[in-house]
Amino acid sequence: MSFSHPSHFVLSFLLTCFLFVPLSGCATLYKPLNEKDVEVILSRIQTQEGKVFSFYTSGALSLRDRDWESESHVLIVGNKNPFKMKIEVTHPWGGPLVHILIDERDLQVLSFPERKLYLGAFTPEALSKFLPGELDAHLVWSVLRGYPHLLAYHRTLSLKANQIRLLDEKGKVLEIINLYPESKLPRMVFFPEKNMGLGFSDFQEMDGIYFARKVKLEDMAGKSNLTLRNRKMVFNVAIPKQVFQLEKPPSFGTYDLEENSDETVPNLR
């Protein structure tokens, strides 16, 4: 016998549940998480946040816009407190494309195709001129470290299996966390206010630290996305201060991010 209509597959699945699997087993496919499970899962995520104070990684960075797509090599070095992040994007054939330095409240960007150094305050809006999405310090850390950050919340809600919602005092949804069914590791984190989602896959564990080798940042409106593939991660090593510096070539001009807000779109292709 063959089933040619999608409804036949659904019917077959339900019959299998009723005939061969206890009712409680089928129910768990749809049953929301209970409060204790939610508490354990969120505690696990918060514990992971505190396990890493620095890291560096190398890998591949893919950027896609509506009109173009590119893939480059990337080297990333991060320090949590004080917050510093350096991202070096290199063309596949070896030439530098963009170096981004976040030094607490300051943002510097060397655009090699444009021969420009951009200087300004680090804000999500300023960084969005160079990378997709409006990322604050916590989200930058989440994407590059490979593990999600929990926003401050008032209460939680689970409406279906393997999903947790974080709510504010008025009941507005701040963050939606979708989990892998077996491991309960975070699979997708959605931020409704930003209309942005972060996907985490290919999790690895190293000395109690979990991280995703593949992280995808997606504008849910379909305008653009970023995919980071980590090849090598090293955690909790002392990083020399001189690493968090950018050296401007003599021929490069210097531009203020606020004064040149309409022109700051470096070519990463």
What this model shows, in words?
This protein has a single domain, classed as Lipoprotein localisation LolA/LolB/LppX (outer membrane lipoprotein receptor (LolB), chain A). The protein is globular. With 269 residues, it is an alpha+beta fold. The model is unreliable at 13-21 (pLDDT under 50). Strand 11 and strand 12 (209-219) form a beta hairpin. It is 18% helix and 41% strand. The longest helix is centred in the N-terminal third of the chain and has 15 residues, at 6-20. It has a 14-stranded mixed β-sheet with strand order 7-8-9-10-11-12-13-1-2-3-4-5-6-14. The relative contact order is 0.17. The N and C termini lie far apart (52 Å). It is built from five helices and 14 strands. The protein has helices at residues 6-20, 23-27, 35-49, 124-127, 137-145; strands at 54-65, 69-79, 84-90, 96-103, 106-111, 116-121, 155-157, 163-167, 173-179, 186-191, 196-206, 209-219, 224-235, 253-256.
